[in-house]
Design brief:
The structure holds two protein chains of two kinds.
Chain A: H1 3-11, H2 26-29, H3 52-66, H4 74-78, H5 80-158, H6 161-165, H7 167-183
Chain B: H1 2-7, E1 16-22, H2 26-38, E2 45-51, H3 57-68, E3 73-76, H4 83-91, E4 98-102, E5 106-107, H5 112-120, E6 126-133, H6 156-166, E7 171-174, E8 181-184, H7 186-192, H8 206-216, E9 220-231, H9 241-255, H10 259-269, H11 273-285, E10 291-295, H12 301-314, E11 319-326, E12 330-335, E13 343-346, H13 352-362, E14 364-369, H14 382-386, E15 390-393, H15 419-428, H16 437-449, E16 453-456, H17 459-468, E17 474-476, E18 498-503, H18 512-525, E19 529-534, E20 549-551, H19 560-567, E21 571-573, H20 584-590, E22 596-599, H21 603-607, E23 614-617, H22 623-646
Parallel strand pairs in B: 1-2, 1-4, 2-3, 6-9, 10-11, 10-14, 14-15, 15-16, 16-17, 18-19, 18-21, 19-20, 21-22, 22-23
Antiparallel strand pairs in B: 4-8, 5-9, 6-8, 7-9, 11-12, 12-13
Helix pairs in contact in B: 18-22
The chains are: A mainly alpha, B alpha/beta.
């Protein structure tokens, strides 16, 4: 649809709005600075920026929403400086707690670094032992090979004709040795 | 004027030299000097014009006339020495006086100098003072760090009066002055020295480097919040400006590597925003136009385009404010007029009363809901709590379907099942605020039936909505769009492969997976089809060379006709799987006169009803059948072209 046609149809019921502007009070439109910055921006300076009126208004709003039947009693309003002081004390406590936790964190980080260094050392030792183990396993395999070669040689020797033909001679030999022992 | 000062009893050191270096631009210089001469100041001042060997004889002659009339003190350089040398010559003219450096393309108003002087004298640690301007980077108004035109209906005189009233006596500290209009105290000049003409001979950056030196020895730089000086900008250097700025930045960073970080920190913090907002507020409440407030989401797309289009066409007759969800549960209200920056944030639920007060102070006379997705539920109470009439434009099916597109989890049209079916869908994908479908429709249905008008862009949408919320006052009003000029999409003899074009950002409900299936089928069957998307996909899909499908990437709407023409497509395809409510990209497709293939669903049926080259298929037609249709259509078109003498 052509924009001018749309505008004609859309704005028809809005003609009655002409002349509805009455207020020229720009101060009524002025908001506290926080309203001009997106949530989570760096503008807010926290409790230090709050004045008595702001805080009372905020407390009243919270009460209106959470406990609609309640109103901020005058006695509470008079207690305001104590409330503010309490909040500031709490902030100071939290600051101290954050500093303490910061120290704990620093200590933990230092322990962490020490343990990381030890871990590296142990890993290096482990690698060295692994190399040694591998070397030993290699040697062991060589020895096992040699043993089996020797066993095979022995079996071959024992099965040979010459070994069998000389069997009586070895028997007589052993007997002669035994007789010498008895004579002694 | 110089002679007057000499003859008077005023101490020479209490006089301020207003130094105006001139090179070219007769008209701008005339406006500047005439504005300076038009407003007498309480602060004694002498206007010192340095003509840096202007190449415009008329300009030089005019300056001489003024000097002869003793309106100005004229210093003429026999050769061009560069902007910085010209300024330095002006500053050395009277070595005891404060100075104001004023570019020759500025215009001042009222007691501008008195206001600058007042701030300069407020503290001995102040080195420089700069006023607000339309075109002055960190001192810019209405938009921070932008070259702004003067706001519509607010000429310099009116705007300066507003600054003087709403920010009377206010100033904030800045990291640097801006050289278009810069008050410098003599104490500062004496300790810091003049501008560095060796490094910045031709201008740009010299005032920043000067301010950094001044900061190092303890001077502050103020933004004078109660004065506004007009600055045209780019008169003497024109197109060279960007190159000069870049060169200046390099030079400053070599000497002061922390400079950009310091400026960045100031821009992030933007403490001058509060001062700009006070002026915005004054201008808003003094506008004679009735106020409308749009309520919409932050998801962009067609809804945002409509909101912006409507705000533009309403600008001459209305002030449009736009309320959107912000942050976890808050809302923001921005001034919808082009060129404005005003925005305020309200954390809900605690600031709800503040929000109501603010809207009432604005004098909003009517609300217009466009979308409420992501909105705090309190916003639905606005019409009632403010006793305001309202309209509701439907951009999708949100009031009857929390999934807003009438689609199931597989992103295909749901065929609008019964209540049990909808609740089963909500069990998998719960609605906002955890409502069941009946409560949802009752809640939002109440909002719709309370509206003066529920605006829908198509008959199809009205029919669907009436099934669920029959009592609303529906008004059919197609979206406002300037006529799309015929898109140049020249038909060329096919070269063995047909190009099928798809327009816009593709999501699964807009047929991303159907398109991928078509491309895979074309690959498997060896069909002569190539699918090209002007736009992008919102998730990863297979593309060429694996399958015959490619994406151009994001684009600006204004470029779309040219982009379509450049692609030389054979056909345009809309693979949507939901009942579209309008489709802006279809408007561009219609202008090509090319064959269009779309599903018989939503607004496509009626928008393509009279289009001679349209082909509509059932929305759940398989990809293979779509491809068969493409091949048939295109082969037929190819034969027609061959018969017309384009044959290969």
């Amino acid at each position: 649809m052509a924009p001018e046609d749309y505008l004609r149809q859309y704005a028809e019921p809005l003609q009655a709005l002409a002349g509805t502007v009455s207020s020229r009070n720009w101060q009524a439109l002025a908001l506290e600075p926080d309203y001009y910055y997106p949530p989570g921006s760096v503008w807010g300076s926290g409790l230090d920026a709050l004045n008595r009126t702001d805080l009372l208004e905020m407390l009243q709003q919270i009460l209106d929403i959470e406990y609609p039947q309640q109103r901020l009693p005058e006695s509470v309003a008079r207690e305001f400086p104590n409330v503010l002081q309490g909040l500031k004390d709490e902030r100071a406590w939290r600051q101290t707690e954050m500093e303490r936790l910061g120290e704990v964190l620093a200590q933990r980080q230092s322990d962490n670094e020490r343990l990381a260094a030890e871990l590296i050392e142990h890993q290096s030792e482990l690698r060295r032992l692994a190399v040694e183990l591998e070397h030993c396993q290699g040697e062991s395999a060589v020895l096992v090979n040699e043993a089996s070669t020797l066993r095979a040689n022995l079996a071959e020797l024992r099965g040979s004709t010459s070994w069998r033909l000389t069997k009586p001679l070895r028997w007589f030999g052993r007997m002669a040795k035994t007789a010498q022992v008895l004579d002694v | 004027m110089a002679a007057d000062i000499e003859a008077s009893a005023i101490s020479p050191s209490s006089v301020v030299d207003v130094i105006i270096p001139v090179y070219r631009g007769l008209a701008e210089t005339q406006r500047c000097l005439e504005s300076v001469l038009a407003f007498p100041q309480r602060t004694a001042c002498e206007i010192v014009v340095v003509n840096d060997c202007s190449p415009e004889p008329k300009l030089s002659a005019w300056l001489r006339e003024l000097a002869e009339a003793r309106a100005i003190t004229l210093l003429e350089n026999p050769v061009n020495t560069g902007f910085v040398n010209a300024v330095n010559r002006g500053m050395t003219q009277h070595p005891d006086r404060d100075v104001v450096l004023l570019n020759s393309d500025t215009e001042v108003h009222g007691d501008w100098l008195d206001r600058l002087h007042h701030h300069a004298e407020s503290d001995s640690s102040i080195g420089t003072v700069t006023p607000f301007s339309n075109n002055a980077t960190i001192c810019s108004y209405p938009r921070f760090n932008q070259d702004n035109p003067l706001p519509k209906d607010w000429p310099l005189a009116a705007l300066d009066r507003v600054f003087a009233e709403v920010n009377a006596g206010l100033a904030i500290e800045m990291p640097t002055a801006v050289g278009f209009c810069m008050y410098i105290r003599r104490d500062c000049l004496k300790k810091v020295g003049y501008f560095d003409a060796l490094m910045f001979k031709r201008g740009y950056g010299e005032e920043n480097e000067f301010c950094l030196r001044a900061t190092e020895v303890g001077f502050k730089h103020l933004l004078c919040a109660d004065a506004f000086v007009y600055h045209q900008g780019r008169v003497s250097f024109g197109a060279e400006t960007s190159a000069l700025c870049a060169e200046a930045e390099r030079s400053i960073l070599e000497r002061y590597p922390h400079y950009l970080g310091m400026i960045g920190e100031y821009c992030t913090r933007d403490p001058a925003r509060v001062l700009r907002r006070r002026v915005d507020g004054f201008r808003l409440v003094h506008s004679p136009r009735p106020r409308l407030m749009f309520i919409t989401h932050t998801w962009g797309g067609g809804t945002e385009k409509h909101v912006q289009d409507l705000a533009r066409i309403l600008e001459p007759d209305f002030e449009v404010l736009i309320l959107r969800p912000t942050g976890l549960d808050g809302v923001s209200i921005e001034w919808g007029r082009s060129g404005e920056e005003f925005i305020a944030y309200f954390a809900l639920p605690y600031a709800y009363q503040k929000l109501l007060d603010f809207i009432q102070s604005l004098g909003v006379a009517r609300l217009h809901f466009h979308h409420i997705i992501g909105m705090n539920r309190q916003i639905l109470q606005l019409p009632q709590d403010l006793s305001l009439p309202y309209d509701f434009t439907l951009h999708d099916y949100y009031p009857i379907c929390p999934q807003y597109t009438l689609t199931l989890q597989d992103d295909r049209y749901c065929n609008e099942p019964d209540v049990a079916g909808c609740n089963a869908c909500l069990a998998e994908r719960p609605a906002l605020w955890g409502l069941d479908i009946v409560t949802w429709r009752e809640s939002l249905g109440g909002l719709l039936t309370g509206a003066d008008r529920v605006i829908v862009a198509s008959q199809d949408m009205e029919t669907r909505m009436r099934r669920y919320i029959p009592d609303a006052r529906y008004v059919r009003l197609s979206h406002p769009e300037p006529p799309v000029l015929a898109v140049p999409a020249p038909r060329v003899p096919p070269c063995g492969e047909f190009k099928i074009l798809i327009l816009g950002r593709l999501t699964p409900v807009k047929g991303l997976h159907r398109l991928e299936a078509c491309a895979i089928d074309a690959q498997v069957r060896g069909l002569p089809l190539f699918f090209r998307v002007i736009g992008h996909a919102d998730r990863d899909v297979r593309q060429e060379p694996e399958i015959p499908l490619s994406f151009s990437g994001p684009y600006d709407d204004a470029e779309l006709p040219q982009l379509i023409g450049r692609e030389r497509p054979d056909l345009i395809f809309f693979p949507a799987l939901w009942p579209e409510t309008y489709s802006y990209t279809l408007s561009y497709a219609l202008a090509t006169r090319l064959p269009i293939v779309a599903p018989r669903l939503g607004a496509f049926s009626e928008r393509l009803a009279d289009y001679p080259h349209a082909c509509l298929l059932d929305w759940d037609t398989p990809a293979t059948e779509y491809n068969d249709l493409f091949v048939n259509l295109l082969e037929r078109a190819s034969h027609s072209l061959a018969e017309a003498g384009y044959g290969a």
